[in-house]
Structure formats: structure tokens, C-alpha cells
Design brief:
There is one protein chain. This protein is of the alpha+beta class. 27% of the residues lie in helices and 20% in strands.
Length: 495
């Protein structure tokens, strides 16, 4: 698997001073000396200044690739657990907030959302003590999982059927500072690398008529501080935190580093990244350190913005050469730290394309960003079909789905059918081809009433599809089963 685009983080950090302090000294040194007569011609930058600018830009690129998932995750944390007056707020820290519906175009806090399984959300503050998550017994026919994610966006564990065996149970989530034995009544302890972590619950919905059953299960998901679970005295509370409001414009510019510094105080350095974190710290990227981009000299701000642009360009190349060519599957971008082997470009791509994706062991993701000819999918230019040959539907141990997203905002697409996906639970209502195959019609306008059962509406512009397979069969995991191509067809034919 090619990894040539990946940057080697920290390689250019040696010799850099802190961004703010260094910028101030450079600014002072570069101030022009007043001339007594005619103004001199502009001098070329001193070699030291040019080297500083190059190194600063390279550092910004590396730090953005490494740190983007942390800051992008904070966007969801702030909206879901901090901003109580916001439209996407669900519950405070160490409280579960459930949504008794699936995602729609109105849901904007997570890009590329799954619309197969109603979500329950739990942001965990593990600083004072661990928390205990209790799940009910769940029928074997219904898929469910609790995905445990740290601030780095690594999926450090799952609570799912393979762990619970379908039985009710209690599971403890502990932060990096907790020490102790497995408490009585707890089936298993899962350790997070970071002091703040996320639990994302998914509960399969079979049909609209099944929603009441899903809500009953969601009501049985519980979370308690360990002391409450054991009935013992609670430890002293952790210090209050002043969470900075999330601002997208700031987070996508040099202000990104102020968010990153704030979040790093909750993310102790992993031993594998000790040197990397030390090198970043030499550039002012350090836990809790103030970072005021407005106080930087213009040249330094430009260097930071340029580094961010370089990081995004590296991502575009990676997606074009590795993801769109199926050399790297979407599921390869998510997992434990050990599974990803500190591949920061993979983690960056996962956060950009659809943050909080499942690990490959839990779910397989295969994306359609381009059509069979390699052209970007665009329903303003073509109609498309996705045809599964007879007996070639995605092999699965749970269920599969094909979901369509707007290529511009990466969200679900508003449409007259309120249909955002087609999944295996819908098979009895889909129209089969004469030979037993299944053809899905992907286009903006209706393909006609005789084909609307198989129509997945697209925007009048760029779009992409994600084929999800929960508990995929071996043929999917080892890629002996191949997804069909997204094929453009003459407008209005869909044949």
C-alpha cells in the first residue's frame, strides 16, 4: 500500500523558536532603518529570514496534518456537549443524549453521517474518575455498537455483540491517569489515551415502524461515574474548563493552532510521539500554551496559512491517487493507534472525509467519488446507475447500505422522497432486474415512476456515495468481493 504522500512530522522543526516569540524578534530585526535621503530599494529577505519562513510553513503543514482530527473532533464536542443553546446540543459531559431518529439534511454537526442507525452520544470527562457504561440485552438480529474514541480520533475499543454476547453488561472507561483493578460488577475495562473521550452508540433501525423499539433500547443505555456505580464517595471534581467557542473560519486558518494547544492539555503524549511533541513544543505548539495568531507578523501568518494549504493539497493528492483508485479503502483510515501505525495522513484523510468512522473490523466503508471513467461524480452532468449482478449483493453478517452525500458540504441531500440511502432492509421493496440483479438509479431528476423504488436522489451538482457494510463478511474484508462501478448513462435513460 503506497504511502509516499505521507509527511514526516517534525522533520523540519529543529532550530525553530516559539512561533509568537520568534515572530516578534524577526519583526524587530526586519524593521527598515530610516533613510536620510532617498528611500533605498527593497532588499531581498535575509537568508535566515527565508529559512525561518520555509521551516515555519513546513511545520504548519506537518502540525495541521497531525492535529486536524483533534480540532475537527472538538467541533462535534463543542456543539454536542458544550453549546447548550445550539441546535446540535445533545447532553453535557458524562450524560447520554439520544436521537430517536436517523440523520437528515438538517443534521450538520458530523459530516458524512450514517443514516442507518439512530445515534446516542456521550462525551466523557475522565479526569476525576472513570465512567461506567451499561447496555441492555439486545436481540441477535439487531446490530448495535458503542464506538469508543479518544481525542486523537483513534477508535480505542468497542462495546458490541462480540463483547456482550447479546447480554446486558457494565463496562468501564478509564482515562490515562486511573490506576486500579477491575471493579466488582464491571465486565471489562477500556483505557483511553486522553482525558476527554467520546462514546458513539449506534442502534439499527429496521424500518420507520421499528423506531419505538429503538427508542426503548436507547433509554436503557446508561452512564455513571464509577463512584455512583459502586455506591462510594465521589472524588473531588476536576477543575472547571472554559471551552473556547468553535469558529469554523478560525479553525481553518492560523487560529487552528490556538484550538490545538487548548486541546493538547487533555491529551498526554504517547511514548511513540514524545520526540514529535517536543519538536512541536519548540514551535509554540504545546499543551495549554496561549497562541494568538493576530499578534504574529504578516509573514508568519502567511507561512502558517501556506502550510495549511500545503496540507490540504497533500490530502487532495492522496485522495486522487490512493482513495479514488481503491488502493486505500475508507475503512483503512480509522482504527486504533496500533492499527494505523501512526499514519497521520490516513488519520487526517479520515477526519476530512468523514470523522468518527468505524474501524475496519467493525464496518467496511467503500466510497464512490468518481465514476467508472474516473470522472468526479456530478449529477448536473450525468445520470448514473449502480448495478449489483445476480448473487453479488454485498456479503454481510449484519446489514449494508448505500448513502448519498452532497459533494460540496458532505451532508445528506434534501429531496422529495426524503430518501438518503438504500440498504439491505429495503430489499423486499426494491425492483429486481429480469436476471435477478439489482440496479440503483443515481440522479437528480426522477427516473420515472416505474423506477422510483430504486432511485437514490442526488443534488444537481457534485456528490459521492458511501457503501457501508456492518459486520462485513470475509469476502468483503479480504476484497475477494468487489464493489460494482458507478456508471454514467445518457441523461434520462438510466438503463
Amino acid at each position: 500500500m503506497a504511502t509516499s504522500p505521507i509527511v514526516r512530522l517534525g522533520a523540519v522543526l529543529l532550530g525553530l523558536c516559539a512561533l509568537v516569540a520568534c515572530g516578534k524578534r524577526d519583526s524587530d530585526a526586519a524593521a527598515p532603518t530610516p533613510a536620510a535621503t532617498t528611500a533605498p530599494q527593497a532588499a531581498a529577505p535575509a537568508p535566515a529570514d527565508a529559512a525561518h519562513t520555509r521551516e515555519l510553513r513546513a511545520t504548519a503543514k506537518d502540525a495541521y496534518i497531525w492535529g486536524f482530527p483533534i480540532v475537527e473532533g472538538y467541533k462535534s464536542m463543542y456543539q454536542q456537549a458544550v453549546d447548550r443553546g445550539g441546535a446540535n446540543f445533545h447532553a453535557g459531559f458524562n450524560e447520554i443524549g439520544s436521537v430517536g431518529s436517523v440523520a437528515t439534511p438538517k443534521d450538520t454537526s458530523i459530516i458524512t453521517p450514517n443514516s442507518d442507525t439512530p445515534y446516542s452520544f456521550l462525551w466523557m470527562d475522565l479526569r476525576a474518575e472513570p465512567v461506567v457504561i451499561s447496555v441492555p440485552a439486545i436481540d441477535a438480529k439487531r446490530y448495535f455498537s458503542v464506538q469508543l474514541i479518544d481525542l486523537y480520533t483513534y477508535n480505542f475499543a468497542y462495546i458490541n455483540r462480540s463483547v456482550t454476547e447479546g447480554k446486558a453488561g457494565a463496562f468501564m472507561i478509564a482515562g490515562p491517569d486511573w490506576k486500579g483493578e477491575t471493579p466488582k460488577g464491571v465486565r471489562e475495562v477500556f483505557r483511553a489515551e486522553t482525558q476527554l473521550a467520546y462514546a458513539l452508540f449506534r442502534t439499527q433501525l429496521f424500518s420507520p415502524a421499528d423506531l419505538a423499539n429503538v427508542k426503548r433500547l436507547q433509554a436503557q443505555y446508561k452512564v455513571q461515574p464509577l463512584s455512583a456505580f459502586l455506591g462510594t464517595a465521589a472524588p473531588p471534581p476536576a477543575p472547571a474548563v472554559s471551552f473556547p467557542p468553535y469558529d469554523a473560519e478560525k479553525a481553518n486558518g492560523p487560529g487552528f493552532f490556538s484550538y490545538l494547544n487548548f486541546l493538547l492539555q487533555f491529551a498526554p503524549a504517547d511514548p511513540s510521539e514524545t520526540e514529535l511533541r517536543q519538536r512541536f513544543a519548540a514551535s509554540g505548539i504545546a499543551p495549554g500554551k496561549p497562541f494568538d495568531e493576530a499578534s504574529l507578523p504578516p509573514a508568519d501568518r502567511d507561512a502558517l496559512a501556506g502550510g495549511i494549504a500545503d496540507a490540504n493539497q497533500a490530502l487532495e493528492q492522496f485522495v486522487a491517487t490512493e482513495v479514488n483508485t481503491a488502493k486505500v479503502a475508507s475503512a483503512d483510515l480509522f482504527g486504533t493507534r496500533a492499527a494505523l501505525k501512526n499514519n497521520y495522513l490516513y488519520r487526517f484523510a479520515g477526519a476530512k472525509l468523514g470523522i468518527f468512522g468505524n474501524s475496519a473490523s467493525e464496518a467496511d466503508y467503500q466510497s464512490y467519488f468518481v465514476d467508472a471513467q474516473g470522472a468526479p461524480a456530478d449529477a448536473s452532468q450525468h445520470d448514473y446507475v449502480l448495478r449489483f449482478a445476480k448473487d453479488q449483493l454485498p456479503p454481510t453478517n449484519a446489514f449494508w447500505s448505500v448513502t448519498l452525500y452532497d459533494g460540496k458540504n458532505k451532508l445528506l441531500v434534501d429531496n422529495p422522497l426524503n430518501r438518503y440511502l438504500i440498504n439491505s432492509a429495503m430489499l423486499p421493496k426494491l425492483k429486481r432486474d429480469p436476471d435477478g440483479g439489482l440496479t440503483l438509479h443515481i440522479q437528480h431528476a426522477s427516473p420515472g415512476t416505474d423506477k422510483e423504488a430504486n432511485w437514490l436522489p442526488a443534488p444537481a451538482g457534485p456528490f459521492y456515495l458511501v457503501l457501508r457494510n456492518y459486520s462485513p463478511a470475509k469476502a468483503v474484508v479480504d476484497r475477494t468481493w468487489q464493489k460494482p462501478a458507478l456508471t454514467p448513462v445518457p441523461r434520462g435513460s438510466s438503463d
